[in-house]
Amino acid sequence: MTAAPAPPTLLERIDRLRRERHAVILAHNYQLPAVQDMADFVGDSLGLSRAAAATDAAVIVFCGVHFMAETAAILCPDKVVLLPDLDAGCSLADTITADQLRAWKAEHPGAVVVSYVNTTAAVKAESDYCCTSSNAEAVIRSIPEDREILFLPDMFLGAHLQRVTGRRLNIWMGECHVHAGIDPEHLEAMRREHPDAELLIHPECGCTTSTLYRMSQGDLGGTSTVVCSTEGMVRRAVESPATSFIVATEVGILHRMEKFAPGKRFVPASREAVCRFMKMITPEKIAACLERMQPRVTVDPETAAQARAAIDRMLAVAA
Ligand code: 13P
Ligand code: SF4
Predict the structure, then answer these.
(1) Half-sphere exposure of residue 76: CA atoms within 13 angstroms, side-chain side
(2) Which one, 95, 130, 208, 310, has the greatest CB density within 10 A?
(3) Residue of the nearest CA to atom 2 in ligand 2?
(4) In the chain, where are the structural domains located?
(5) What is the pLDDT of residue 213?
(6) Contact residues for 116 (Cβ-Cβ < 8 A; gap 6+)
(7) What residues form DSSP beta bridges with 26?
């Protein structure tokens, strides 16, 4: 008697479904290692938008949070966008609604509205420009000097942009609870423990402004400091001559850094910097959503067209 064949593993099931559904799996840099490893593409918000726009797959399984899946749905109206868990939200995107933005715009008639990508489709639809952490500076610089700017929703990124561009911005006082928690005290303690490490800081962090200020005062000694998007951090980890790094962002990024720069050492600025929304996506939920072709993320055509205009203006400035 021959033994029954072993049942397929979870990964084999996902691979079979991915082929059958003509699906592509996109994963953000903060996803669980197992999710990153099975994805067709891993990257930051901008990279994922580009990958969504470029794919010829019929189905996009978006392993990230809701606003990112919405952005994919806006860019690919003819594709099915699946988000393995609809509860994967974003505390930063939740800090401003379209109604609140309309009220803010009414207080500043004629101002140019620049929205960080961590916003709902409805907020993007009320915006002139979208931006991500990798192109926010270029977007702000592209706006004529004499125009008033409303920047939302992240106050730490807004303060960083004011500093690097020298522009005065009206900034919405939103924050991401994960990044706001990485404060100057956390970073200082890590710097004392690892004096030779290079600092890689995401601009959403609560420590960004004070660290850059101290750097400009020559107060950080020879410590090399780079403020960049999650993808910029991976690139820097590979290209930098440094061999150890303090990484100030969500801890999921360490998996990619260790993969792309083996032999280098990466320590998180805070081990508590875990985005529970990003971690809601699991291999089991990926298999289930491919099986059922649910849950889907859609954006109504009118909102999508307006939001798309803000995204296209961003891409035109910093493609
Ligand atoms: P990146 O665009 O740098 O990947 O950042 C997205 C994000 O949600 C950071 O918290
Ligand atoms: Fe949103 Fe913060 Fe999570 Fe990024 S880390 S997805 S900004 S809650």
Answers:
(1) 28
(2) 130
(3) 176
(4) 10-88+279-299, 93-177, 182-268
(5) 65
(6) 92, 130, 131, 132, 133, 136, 151, 152, 153, 154, 157
(7) 41, 62
**Which of 65, 205, 279 to probe ligand 2 with, by most ligand atoms within 8 A of CB?**
65
Q: Is the backbone peptide bond immediately before 153 cis, with ω within 30 degrees of 0?
A: yes
- pLDDT at residue number 184: 83
> Among candidates 228, 262, 212, which has minimal Cα distance to 45?
228
Place of tokens 């998996």: 255
Task: Note the pLDDT of residue 207.
Answer: 73
Q: What is 93-177's CATH number?
A: 3.40.50.10800
Residue 154, ligand 1, Cβ within 6 A: no
Q: Out of 3.40.50.800, 1.10.1060.10, 3.40.630.30, 3.40.50.10800, select the CATH number for domain 182-268.
A: 3.40.50.10800
Q: How far is the CA of 176 from the centre of ligand 2 (A)?
A: 6
Mean pLDDT of successive 10-residue stretches along the chain, which has 319 residues: 85 98 98 98 92 95 97 95 98 97 98 97 98 92 97 93 94 93 86 92 80 67 81 94 95 97 95 96 98 98 97 84
The CATH architecture annotation of domain 10-88+279-299 reads 3-Layer(aba) Sandwich (3.40)
Give the residue from 149, 118, 148 showing the smallest Cα distance to 131: 118
Q: Is 119 in the pocket of ligand 1 (CB under 6 A)?
A: no
Best substitution site from 179, 205, 233, 276 to test ligand 2's pocket, by max atoms within 8 Å of Cβ?
179
Is the pTM value of this prediction over 0.85?
A: yes
Closest CA to 121 of 300, 280, 296, 278: 300
